[in-house]
Amino acid sequence: MSEPEEFAAKLRAAVMCRLGPPGDLAEVKRLTGGATKATWSFSARVGEENVPLILQLANPRTASPGDPLAELPRVVGEDDAALLIAAAAAGVPVAPVRAVLSAEDGLGPGCIMDFVPGETIARRILREAEFAPLRADFATQCGTILARLHAMDAGPLCFLKGFGAAEQVDLYRRVYASLDHPQPVIELGLRWAEDRLPGLRPPTVVHGDFRLGNLICNAGRIAAVIDWELAVLGDPVQDLGWLCVKTWRFGGRLPVGGMGTREQLVDAYARAGGGAVDAAALHFWEGFGSIKWAIMCLMKGQEHRRTGRRSIEQLAIGRRMEEPLHDFLQLIAGED
Amino acid sequence: MPLSLSPAADMLATIRDYLETEVLPGLRDDKWFNVKVSCNMLAVIERELRLGPGADAEGAARLAALTGMHGTLAAMNRSLAAAIRDGRIAIDDPDLLDHLRRTTADALRINNPQWLGPATRTDPVRTSDAGSG
After folding, report:
1. At CB < 8 Å, which residues of chain A contact B?
2. Record: contact B115-A121, CB cut-off 8 A
3. Where are the beta strands (DSSP E) in A70-209?
4. Measured in whole angstroms, how far is the alpha carbon of residue A207 from the centre of its chain?
5. pLDDT tens across B14-42, in order?
6. pTM of the full structure
7. pLDDT averaged over chain A?
8. What is the ipTM of this complex?
C-alpha cells in the first residue's frame, strides 16, 4: 500500500470503530500542514448519512534539548480534545469532538471533529460584503466568548501549564537570546515589558492565540474557536490584548481584529461575567504581544538553519519582524 | 562585483515580472501561494538593493553618535542592544527612540512599505493568512 492509501485505510478504520460503519471516505483533503500539526477535511459514510468531518493530528515539535523553545507550553492529542470538550461545556463555540484517537488507530495523537462551515481568512472577513453583520458585532462577540472561555473549569485540565506574564517575558527573552541576533527594539520591548508586569490575579484558562485566523466565522457570528494548542493557565487579559495586536487587524482600522473598539470588547467581557479589565494590563499584553510576534518572526527567519528545511513562507515571515516593532513603538508613544 | 550589465535590480524586476504575468496565472493552491510570496520577496530584494546602502549609512551615523563607537553596523547594533539590556541607556531616551523609529521605518520601506502608509493595505497575500503557527 502507498502512504496515502495506508493513511486512508487507517482513517476509515478509526471512523468505523468510533463513529460507526461503514466508514467509507470521500473528499479527503489536506487543509494545512504546518510543522506542528496537520488538518484534513473529509466526509465519511456513517449509517445512512454522509458526515462532513475534520481530522487534526499533532506532530512532535522539533526542538533540541536545551533549546528554550522546547519550554513553550503546547497542548496536543487527547489533551487538545479534552480542552475542546471543556470549552463546549462552558458555552464557548467550538467544533464538536466526535472521536479522540488513541495509539491503536496508528495515526498519531489527534482527534476527529465535526466540520464547521465558515470562513477563517482574515482579508475576506474584513472586506467582503456578506460579513458586514459580523463586523459590526465582532468585538462584542469576542468579549462574550472570552468571558466564557476564562470561566472554564480548569480542574480537569491538569495538563495545562502555568504561564503567566513574568514567565512569558522571561522565556521569550531566552528564546530571543538563543537566536543571537541583537535587535535594539526587541531589547527595548523586553525591558518595557519587565517594567510593567501586570499584578498577579487568579490564573484562568487562556486560549493563547485568540485572533482572526483562528476563528471560524459566518455572516453574523463567530461559529468556532480553533487552534487551542497554545492554551495555558495564566492572566486572562492576555487573550484580550493579543486580539488587539495590530498584526491581527490585517489592515483593518479598529483595534479589535480590525473591526471593533477596545471599549466594545471590555464592556461585553464585563457584561458576560469576565470582570473589569485593567487598562494597564491590556496595554501590557498588547505591547508585549507585538514583541512576542517580532521574536517569532526572527525565529522563522532563521528556522531553516536550525531544521535544515527551507521554506519560502518562513523566509517571508522573517522579513515581517519590523511590522510589530513599528506598531510597538507607535503604541508606547501613545499613537495607537 | 561584476562590471558587466545587466544590473542586479533590473534582473530581479524582469524575473518578477515574468513570474507575475506568465507563470502565476497558470498556478493554483500552494504553488500559486509560494510563487506569489516569491514575487513579493523579489520585490523586497529590489528595494533592498536600491534603499539599503543609504539607510545603512544614515543608521551607522546615528548608531555612532548613540554608542560612541565606530565599528561595523553589526558591532554597533550589538553594543546598543547590550546597553539597553543592561540599563546603560534609558528606554525613554528621546535620541534612542528617534533612532529606533527611523531604523524601523527604513526597514519597512524595504520589507513592506505599505505598513507605513494609511491603515488600508491592498496587498492581497499576507503570509500570516496561511498560518503563522
Report:
1. 32, 34, 36-37, 121-123, 182-185, 187-188, 190-192, 195, 209, 213, 227, 229-230, 247, 250-253, 296, 312-313, 315-317, 319-320, 322-323, 325-326, 329, 333
2. no
3. 97-100, 110-114, 204-206
4. 7
5. 999 999 999 999 999 889 999 999 999 99
6. 0.91
7. 93
8. 0.88
